[in-house]
Structure formats: structure tokens, C-alpha cells
Design a protein that fits this description.
The structure is a single chain. By secondary structure, the chain is mainly alpha-helical. The protein has one domain. Helix 1 packs across helix 2. The chain is elongated, with a radius of gyration of 15 Å. The N and C termini lie close together (about 5 Å). InterPro entries: DUF1656. Keywords: Cell membrane, Membrane, Transmembrane, Transmembrane helix. This is Efflux system membrane protein.
């Protein structure tokens, strides 16, 4: 994996792009969980959402590393 991505002449760290992708996936997961009513069983929603984001970010990093190699 390269360290930077060139977007119209602006070098952006690759992790920033991966974090944006993880955020969009996390947003979709949160929407589904809210519609299903899963958050009724969660003690602290903010911590739970952070945990899901960290897991999704880790999965995105692993998948991007696997597909780029």
C-alpha cells in the first residue's frame, strides 16, 4: 500500500481515504441497526458505534491491503 494518494494534485494520506470509506459503511450499518431496533439492547450507543467503526476500519484496511498486493 502506498502512503499517499494523488487527488487532482493534492496528496492525501491513504488512511484518510480508508477512514472515509469505513465511515460510509458504518453509517449504513448504524442506519440498519436503528431501523431494526437493535439499539434497545445496547447500553451505551456511542461506545457501541465507536466499536463498530473501529472493527469496520480494521476490515477495510485488511481488505485494501489484500486487494492492493
Amino acid at each position: 500500500m502506498i502512503g499517499e494518494i494523488d487527488i487532482f494534485g493534492v496528496f492525501v494520506p491513504a488512511i484518510l481515504v480508508l477512514m472515509l470509506v469505513a465511515y460510509l459503511v458504518n453509517l449504513a450499518i448504524r442506519t440498519v441497526l436503528a431501523r431494526v431496533g437493535f439499539y434497545r439492547f445496547v447500553w451505551h450507543r456511542s461506545i457501541f458505534d465507536l466499536g463498530i467503526y473501529v472493527l469496520v476500519l480494521g476490515a477495510v484496511v485488511v481488505l485494501s491491503h489484500r486487494f492492493m498486493s
